[in-house]
Every structure is written in structure tokens, then in C-alpha cells.
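Data's thin. Show one?
=====
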Amino acid sequence: MHNRRLHPSNLHLIGFGLGAHVAGFASKLLAQMNVQVAHITALDPAKPLFLTSNKDERLDKTDANFVDVVHSDIFLHGLMLPIGHVDFYPNKGVVQPNCGPVNELSTHECYHERAAAYYAESIHSHTGFWAFRCRDLLSFIMNSCQPNQQLELLGYRTSPTARGSYFLRTNDTTPYALGQNFNDMDRSLYGQTYLGDALVSKLHELAAESKL
């Protein structure tokens, strides 16, 4: 029997939730042995215990040559801030379709799990989860960016040269991919987060002040 070893240049780690950070920690450990992981895909990386600026205590884009992230439940289970070379926010990363009432925990579990569902569909999708680039989530929410020619595919076929934050909407039911259809994109947070509309209004005020 021949010994067969996987070369680091072919190593692609995929982690969901807590597993996204586990992939990062595994990569950090390998780096100590002078082995650089080629690719990490983070599917809605967990927020609890990992809401820190210390890159040694969570997944970071320095953990691999290329890190792509899908954010699907940024207000509860997942991280909001971009932590990869490229970060995708399907349906703003806030609310995913047909998951249930916003104030129920099971609804947010559905939001969280949808990142994995989108990635799984992307493997064989001919339509594709196309997204367009915005400066950041706030720019998208405030309608400061519009669909443009900076497009990228979420999922299995994401280009390793992709950089920045990308936004898209999905279909309400499977198949979720909508291709390059950016019509009727919902940018509002009102009534869509357990944080409450008062806090959403405050976010809008802060965003408006930042433009002055």
C-alpha cells in the first residue's frame, strides 16, 4: 500500500457555526508546523464566545490563503463583522425566508442553518448564488450601494481572488439560488430583528450622522 498525503495547497476546511472557528484553530495549529491551509469556508461562524477583536481567539482571514464566509444569522447565532477575504450576506444576513416568527429561537436556528443549505445547493446549482459588492453591511442597509458589475458567486465556486462584502437575496423555497436577479431587494431591518425597532432607528441615526 502506498502512503498518500494531502498537500496543504489542496486542503479545504469547511466549518459551520462553532466548526468555523474549529477550522481556524486547526489552521493556526498547522501554521505552527509551517503548514499553511489553502482554503477555509466559514458557514455562519458562531458569535457566542467569539465576539472578540483578538484574532488568535477566533477564525480570521489570516488562517488560510483564502477564507470565504457566509453570514445568515448575524443578530443571534452568527458574527456580523466581515472576518474573511470575502464575506457574503444573503438576505442581509439577518432574516432567511420561511423560517418562522422573528421572536422564536427555532426561527433563528433556521436562519443559522440556512448558510449550510445555501452552500450545499451551490455545489450543483446551474443558476448560482450571484452577489454584488458593497462597502459594508451598513452601506447596503442605508441604500448607499446598488447592484453593480462587481459580482461574485457564493458557495462552492467562489473565486479565490474575491475580496470584500457581497449581498444577494434568495428564493423563498428550494432551489434558493436566483442567479443575477437583484430585483426587490429588502434592505429594511424594521420588524425583522428581535433587537426591536427602537434600536434599528438608532442604527439609522448613527449611519446618517456618519455621512455628515
Observations:
- Residues 47 and 79 are 5 Å apart (CA to CA).
